[in-house]
């Protein structure tokens, strides 16, 4: 079994981290079954967030009896100290624990620091002093904020989108974390579902000893796939290298990562999916995206008022309205 040491935290986590965002979409019984099966088969790192609706509650119900054997990271979107304390109290209650291993600021547009008027970082320090958290982390989709956080030496971990589709800037960020002894947690290791070969994804990340991927799990067959890598970790063979090279050619351009920070859309467009429908149609069975329900979703693109809210809030600086229109024109060709 492969393990990762998360920087200065010295947390020794299974290379298979459990990303608990998707379990908010399934029943409590199904979620508890997945979480307990994951733990029983060697997964020991579980990542969630205050805004993942009932994800924290499900983790608390499933794993509170083995709390001392697992690591839990969660996140707060708070922008002031008052909201921070409210989020922390709620997380502790729902997770059925008296401490959180890593509490992360959830994608702030700035890097919280001790002298900030918002009081956020000072609140983190006080929570750590009280024993309610062990380590301080931050998540982000912006390279500038991520680099500032790592170089500040104020953060024990950074969570950032990272997969084998990463470019030089993202690889430099991984190396920067290693230099500063900051644990690197890779979100979107399957690039929001665009990477369909999990063995290639795992093998690539296994080459980077300081990177802990968290895999979003919603179905038992998905969990089983990653659990199969516990005892037989994929290695980066020539065959898997060819898969990665092919995906680089197809995917490494201006494409929507599906992070959802463009939302809400004033006319109801499901931007994070509609803006990458061209790729989804070619990388998964197309029929599931050609249903009447999906045709209605795509038709909303014609109602775009070009308010630019999506483009202004895209961490990757995409021209989202143009991307939506391009994807819709391509989508129509599949209907003919």
Specify the overall morphology.
Answer: globular
Count of DSSP strands: 10
Spans of at least 5 consecutive residues whose pLDDT stays below 50 are: none
Mean pLDDT across the residues is: 94
SSE succession: EEEHEHEHEHEHEHEHEHHHHHHH
In total, the number of domains comes to 2
CATH topology of the largest domain: TIM Barrel
Overall radius of gyration: 20 Å
- Indicate the structural class: alpha/beta
The end-to-end distance, rounded to whole angstroms, is 49 Å
Total helical elements:
14
Share of helix, binned? 40-55%
Under CATH at level 1, the class of the largest domain stands as Alpha Beta
The CATH homologous superfamily name of the largest domain equals NADP-dependent oxidoreductase domain
Question: How many strands, what sense, and barrel or not for the largest sheet?
Answer: 8 strands, parallel, barrel
- What fraction strand? 5-15%
Please state how the strands of the largest beta sheet are arranged side by side: 3-4-5-6-7-8-9-10
């Amino acid at each position: 079994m492969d393990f990762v040491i998360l920087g200065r935290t010295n947390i020794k986590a299974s290379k298979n981290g459990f990303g608990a965002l998707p379990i908010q979409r399934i029943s409590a019984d199904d979620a508890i079954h997945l979480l307990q099966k994951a733990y029983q088969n060697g997964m020991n790192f579980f990542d969630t967030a205050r805004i993942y609706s009932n994800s924290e509650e499900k983790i608390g119900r499933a794993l509170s009896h083995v709390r001392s054997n697992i690591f839990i990271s969660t996140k707060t979107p708070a922008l002031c100290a008052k909201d921070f304390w409210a989020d922390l109290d709620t997380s502790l209650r729902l997770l059925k624990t008296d401490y959180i291993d890593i509490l992360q600021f959830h994608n702030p547009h700035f890097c919280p620091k001790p002298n900030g008027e918002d009081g956020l970082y000072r609140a983190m320090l006080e929570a750590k002093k009280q024993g309610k958290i062990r380590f301080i982390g931050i998540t982000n989709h912006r390279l500038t904020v991520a680099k500032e956080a790592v170089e500040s030496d104020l953060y024990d971990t950074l969570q950032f989108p990272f997969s084998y589709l990463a470019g030089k800037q993202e690889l430099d960020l991984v190396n920067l974390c290693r230099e500063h002894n900051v644990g690197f947690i890779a979100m979107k290791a399957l690039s929001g579902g665009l990477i369909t070969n999990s063995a290639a994804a795992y093998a690539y990340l296994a080459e980077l000893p300081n990177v802990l991927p968290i895999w979003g799990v919603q179905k038992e067959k998905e969990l089983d796939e990653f659990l199969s890598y516990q005892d037989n970790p994929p290695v980066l063979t020539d065959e898997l290298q060819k898969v990665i090279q092919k995906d680089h050619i197809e995917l490494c351009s201006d494409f929507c990562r599906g992070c959802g920070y463009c939302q809400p859309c004033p006319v109801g467009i499901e931007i994070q999916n509609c803006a990458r429908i061209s790729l989804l149609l070619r990388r998964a069975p197309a029929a599931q995206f050609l249903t009447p329900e999906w045709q209605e979703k795509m038709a909303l693109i014609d109602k775009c008022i070009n308010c630019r809210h999506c483009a202004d809030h895209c961490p990757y600086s995409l021209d989202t309205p143009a991307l939506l229109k391009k994807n819709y024109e391509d989508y129509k060709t599949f209907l003919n």
